[in-house]
Amino acid sequence: MKIEIWSDVVCPWCYIGKRRIESALAEFAHADEVEVHWRSFQLDPGAPTEPTEGTATMLARKYGQSPEGAKQMQDRVEAVAAEEGLVYRLADTLHLNTVDAHRVIHLAHQQGGIELQGRVKEALLEAYFTHARNVADHRVLREVADATGLDPARVDEVLGSREFEQEVWADIEQAQAYGASGVPFFVIDQKYGVSGAQPTEVFTQVIEKAWSEAHPRIEVLATGEECGPDGCAI
């Protein structure tokens, strides 16, 4: 089974959704046969690569809120995150561009497949939400990449170029083709889509449904004398 997840590293619901689908997979009997592939999505492609304001200020302006109203919005999300064991520092996070972070995630997949890609994705989410780091800063990206096992020389090559930029945009275009208008957005076996950070039980139901349809049981209409692992009945 293949699960593709479109998300942005500055999307608070994406980190929450990640934890919830991980909880569903932890209870799934065939989890070792599931591949989780992370896809790129940018909530704000026009965000600055050199941030000048915090997310609270940006949210207040975008939604016509007072600073106190924006803080209340963030407090509510932090409370939900805490229920999933996540520590958020939303008041300290910056409004920034994530294209370079996504390019590093693509590099991780090229270098180490879905396992390394997953580690880099987790590390970037933690860097941004738990430590309020500037994940548009190449120095921060290099530190995160190095800590997760990426080749430092290749990281420098990617960050010094536009490598994987087309792959990032291809992911975004595919999400739009699927009808996704926001993230997180989950696609199971290119057949079922789930929008948003749904409760764990929703992910469990969809995963079980997709698995059962891909591995149908044969309906046995008649039985008779037979031999089995323990021998034959005589």
C-alpha-based Rg, rounded: 21 Å
Instruction: Tell me the CATH topology.
Output: Glutaredoxin
CATH superfamily: Glutaredoxin
For the termini, the CA-CA separation is 42 Å
Q: Order of strands in the sheet with the most strands?
A: 2-1-3-4
Question: What is the element layout, followed by pairings?
Answer:
Elements: E1 2-7, H1 12-26, E2 35-40, H2 55-63, H3 67-83, H4 99-129, H5 138-148, H6 152-159, H7 165-178, E3 185-188, E4 192-195, H8 200-214, E5 227-228, E6 231-232
Parallel strand pairs: 1-2
Antiparallel strand pairs: 1-3, 3-4, 5-6
What does this structure look like?
The structure is a single chain. The chain has 234 residues and is of the alpha+beta class. The protein has a single domain, classed as Glutaredoxin (3-Layer(aba) Sandwich), CATH 3.40.30. Helix content is 51%, strand content 10%. It has eight helices and six strands. The strands form two sheets. The protein has a four-stranded mixed beta sheet, with helices on both faces. A two-stranded antiparallel sheet has the order 5-6. α1 links the parallel β1 and β2. The chain is globular. The model has no long low-confidence stretch (mean pLDDT 95).
